[in-house]
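At this stage, I put together a protein sequence along with its fold in token form, as given directly below:
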Amino acid sequence: MFNFQKINIFTIKTELFSGLTSALALIPEVIAFSVVAGTSPLTAIYTSFFLCFITSLIGGRPGMISGAAGSVAIVVTALVVRYGVEYLFLAVILMGLIQIVIGALKLGKFIRLVPQPVVFGFLNGLAIVIFLSQFNQFYTDSGQLLSGMNMVFMISLVVIAMIIIYILPKFTKAVPSSLVAIMVVTLLSLVIAVPTKTIGDLSSIAGGLPQFHIPMVPVNLETISIVLPYSIVMALVGLIESLLTLEVVDEMTNTRGKPNRETYAQGIANTVCGFFSGMGGCAMIGQSIVNINSGGRHRLSGIISAITLLCIVLFASPVVNIIPMAALVGVMFMVSFNTFKWESFKLVHNVPNIDVVVMVVVTLVTVIFDNLALAVILGVVISALSFAWENSKRITAIVSYDKKHDVKYYEIQGPLFFGSTSSFKELFDYDGDPDSVVINFSQSRVMDHSAIDIINEVTAKYAKRGKKVLLSYLSRDSADLLDNAEGLIEVNYLDDPYYRIPHDELD
């Protein structure tokens, strides 16, 4: 179940270092997201511990890192402001239960319907958001831009971290370059002793073990009606980002994760978080990329990352507090650089214009609104409408006439669905056709109820003129719905196709 196969000494070392690196990269982001959500930094770190540990242990994508994500934090801000954090904890529990139900219904597999241009736009937008978000560290707590030696020192440390991350893998991959960069920059800052922002300047992250806590809210329908809308949005936003992250990691590692299993794991993790005063979250693509680039490929790296977070809170917060933010800025700048799909520029002249539009729209919506879920949904809708429009123009018929038997044949070409029904209806010569007409669907597919309705309408038109229609190669589910024209419609069941779909076990 846990897939701990093929673990050796070298693998354990790599998983250990990659888990440490991703944990250090996780801390400043989740602290920032806790501010967005209106919760304490410890709440965000405890949330990240449970999410990362549980999803790494039982999830559908080894190597993926989950935590208190910004996309979920944005959703809960209004709930916390109006009703307080106790309502948030209940919302997180319901969020997890909704995700478990979605996993039970095996709906996670539908992430495969997200087109590649949407994924490219999502990654490009995310890379830009990650890049721009790091510039907050170039300002003082009072909002003033760093100046003089402080700015020079900050930029120098960032550049040093980036150079190490870029160059070190060319010589050795025994140790993650990101972790080396963090260690070197930290040592330099201590040796030179020039004041610079550190993790400790953000907030104190010292604390104890997370405590079990039942949300202190009234148990009634009014409470559920307040919380449920937030929970639904949180669940969907979290799953969209998690499953897209799964797709990205699949592409990076040339392997295949299990969306439905990941959906279950996210649901269980968020449910547990809610009972331990957590703010909810999902997979974090930036930290997942850090982990993968550092060599993390197994569940162990995520488990190490989670345990590291908890150990930092319990024992090592003074050590972590001295890490310069410049080191983490350098790491995230390189993550941004590696996340951006630079090949998308080459695709502009080699793909349909609508794909370019989708990439640009998804990128802009991600950057402008900082809402990954909205960007992905919008991209999918545009792609789906474009697909429907293009296929609606492809419905045609090869027409032939058997003079000996006085029969007209229509061999339908192309998919029959809601977008092509109008064109389909115009293919036939209702008044000029002979008394016997054969409509052959061997080169077509009846896709939806609108298609069934238009077949009913066409056969009814022939029936009204006293003409007999034979429908061949029509699926049984479609034939069962043909309820008009009485005995004047005949369906050739011998030629009936059986449409198969991939087995759910693949998910």
